[in-house]
Each structure stands twice: as structure tokens, then as C-alpha cells.
Amino acid sequence: xxxxxxxxxxxxxxxxxxxxxxxxxxxxxxxxxxxxxxxxxxxxxxxxxxxxxxxxxxxxxxxxxxxx
Length: 68
What we know:
Blueprint: H1 6-13, H2 23-30, H3 34-37, H4 47-58, H5 61-67
């Protein structure tokens, strides 16, 4: 799945957590924000923050990572 090693998936299935470096990969694979991966409801943010987040998510991954 998305270049994630089977050992990592096995670790998650056993109750482990993904490495932070894999979060953008997983979010891209599923087409969601990292907030969604953490179960955070993005509608809880204000309209300005939500607009910024949507704009950032629509950028290619290489550009998003340079924004960090």
C-alpha cells in the first residue's frame, strides 16, 4: 500500500502507530488531510483555516513538504 512496508502495516494492526514521516504518504494515498487521519473533524476549524488547509492539500506533495 502506497510504498508502506508490510512490517509497518503489521505493526499498526498490532496497536502501533505510523511513523510521522508516513503520515503525508498515508494522507495522499487516501486523499485526505492528516487531520482526518487523526480523527479530527476539519469543520471544527474556522473558515479561514479551512480554506488555507484545502489550498495546501491541493498542492503537490513536494510543495506541501517545503511549507513545513
